Amino acid sequence: MRTAHRVETVRAAEAELMARLPEGTLMQRAAAGLAAACCSLLGKGRVYGARVVLLVGSGDNGGDTLYAGARLARRGAGVTAVLLGARVHEAGLAALRAAGGRVSDDPFEALAVADLVLDGITGIGGQGGLRPDAVPVARAARGSDAVVVAVDLPSGVSADTGEVGGEALAADATVTFGTYKPGLLIDPAREYAGAVRLVDIGLDATLPSVPDLEALQHEDVAWLLPAPAAESDKYRRGVVGVVAGSARYPGAAVLAVAGALRGGAGAVRYVGPAADAVIARHPETLVHEGPPGKAGRVQAWVVGPGLGDDPGVAEVLASDVPVLVDADGLRDLSPAAVRRRAAPTLLTPHAGEAAALLGVAREEVEDGRLAAVRELAARFGATVLLKGSTTLVADAEGHADGVSTPMSPVRVNPTGTSWLATAGSGDVLSGLAGSLLAAGLRPRDAASCAAYLHGLAARLASNGAPIAASDVATALPRAWADVVG
Ligand SMILES: NC(=O)C1=CN([C@@H]2O[C@H](COP(=O)(O)OP(=O)(O)OC[C@H]3O[C@@H](n4cnc5c(N)ncnc54)[C@H](OP(=O)(O)O)[C@@H]3O)[C@@H](O)[C@H]2O)[C@@H](O)CC1
Ligand SMILES: Nc1ncnc2c1ncn2[C@@H]1O[C@H](COP(=O)(O)OP(=O)(O)O)[C@@H](O)[C@H]1O
Ligand SMILES: [K+]
């Protein structure tokens, strides 16, 4: 499990740890890890003589950068600091000078020939985008041939939310200290971070055990996925019901069923007008014309993909089993109808659907995914999987009186790929997640395992080439095998 903590938590943990250690220890640990990462990025034998430029802000992020620069200078690099703040970390600057580094009076000249740039303008103390005087320097760094390494996090991005309020300096790699920050894992900030390396500075000893954000890894998903026992039969493995498709959108039914068939349930019941299309592609499906209440017992429902203008989710919501609501089923969905359910509900909106449910603009959701997913979970008292460039899953403790508490940690999916932005791939995801619900996973686990497998399947199917939603469904068994193997 990869975990992230917000700034307030990091600062509290840092203060507790610093109280036990000699002054400056944490900064030296950070600088040592940063310098080692820079050496490995430059490559063996290429530190001596390398031209390194430090962009130094007024805080401790600049201090880390100066001390790391001093270490590189001692190994023979030519290190030049560009001072961008009204103040500078004096001890760090003295260390750099003592190691042979210098301060530049022409940042553009230094950047033009740089091999490596360390962005130490702001770290977790940064507010908003880069300030105007730093902008031309940051642009020159980005436009140079140098490898840009962000110190702790790219300057100009929000550490806590992943929002990018103004201009920020995009890095090729980020070396972060102690723990990941949410912004390193959530778009749009994540895109500025490049490849992220975590330097252990001993902070685990004082960080709380429950993080703010967590990203499942292969072993976590393997542990959560259902496996049939020796005495299993198709009913014991769980039956998932799929209410999807319409005369206009029969393909959504086919794709949702394709996902459901590969999600661990023992059988898939399809209910709706696209039965012929479903059977033609998936003869193993149990099909019914409906209504859902007459289709036979299921352990979870998926309702919504391709239902068109008349989704009729009320009957499904009235059932006493977990329900996943997607796509057309989310239109005009009432928080009260979801909150009064006794069984769990999982909502899987994309940014546009989430925006409609929240009554805000789509951009607001895309720019502030973490706040949006938490707010939706709280309002509906449900588990919410927000799709898109970064898929997030948030839980809430639902209460019938309408007061719900968002629960930490939010899960962030690490396997996504933009090749998934293809029509119908969301239908495959909802079928898959519904199947995992029917197999007995908690909504939070079903949603995050489904997103994980879905992203991995897309990567396996794509291998760098465009893919169709059906390719994602076909690759799901390979993704599953890769995870559990
Ligand atoms: N916590 C830990 O465990 C450890 C933390 N460590 C390190 O400390 C870093 C945090 O240091 P920090 O607190 O000094 O804040 P930091 O990010 O350097 O910025 C501070 C100043 O920048 C300014 N400023 C603000 N916004 C700005 C903007 N948009 N554009 C330009 N300038 C802006 C503003 O100053 P002002 O100019 O307003 O006076 C603000 O006060 C952390 O990221 C990590 O690298 C490690 O050493 C070891 C362990
Ligand atoms: N830029 C992106 N990067 C990664 N994944 C994306 C991106 N855009 C969309 N996706 C994923 O693709 C799927 C699209 O689902 P959805 O928007 O419901 O499309 P559809 O309704 O056509 O099936 C989701 O799993 C979503 O997370
Ligand atoms: K930085």
Automatic annotation (TrEMBL):
Entry keyword annotation includes Ribonucleoprotein: no
Pfam families: Carb_kinase (PF01256), YjeF_N (PF03853)
Record's catalysed reaction(s): (6S)-NADHX + ADP = AMP + phosphate + NADH + H(+); (6R)-NADHX = (6S)-NADHX; (6R)-NADPHX = (6S)-NADPHX; (6S)-NADPHX + ADP = AMP + phosphate + NADPH + H(+)
YjeF N-terminal domain: residues covered: 10-209
Sequence positions that bind (6S)-NADPHX: 60-64, 123-129, 152, 252, 306, 350, 427
Cofactor note (record): Binds 1 potassium ion per subunit.
Family indicated by similarity: Belongs to the NnrE/AIBP family.
UniProt binding sites for AMP: K387, G388, S389, T390, T391, G426
InterPro entries per record: Carbohydrate_kinase_pred_CS, CARKD, Nnr, Ribokinase-like, YjeF_N_dom, YjeF_N_dom_sf
Role noted for this protein: Catalyzes the epimerization of the S- and R-forms of NAD(P)HX, a damaged form of NAD(P)H that is a result of enzymatic or heat-dependent hydration. This is a prerequisite for the S-specific NAD(P)H-hydrate dehydratase to allow the repair of both epimers of NAD(P)HX. Bifunctional enzyme that catalyzes the epimerization of the S- and R-forms of NAD(P)HX and the dehydration of the S-form of NAD(P)HX at the expense of ADP, which is converted to AMP. This allows the repair of both epimers of NAD(P)HX, a damaged form of NAD(P)H that is a result of enzymatic or heat-dependent hydration.
Assembly behavior: Homotetramer.
NCBIfam families: yjeF_cterm (TIGR00196), yjeF_nterm (TIGR00197)
Protein name from the UniProt record: Bifunctional NAD(P)H-hydrate repair enzyme
EC number(s) reported in the record: 4.2.1.136, 5.1.99.6
Keyword annotations from UniProtKB, A to Z: ATP-binding, Isomerase, Lyase, Metal-binding, Multifunctional enzyme, NAD, NADP, Nucleotide-binding, Potassium
Gene, per the UniProt record: nnrD
Domain YjeF C-terminal: 217-483
Superkingdom of the source species: Bacteria
Cofactor(s) listed: K(+); Mg(2+)
Positions contributing to K(+) binding: N61, D119, S155
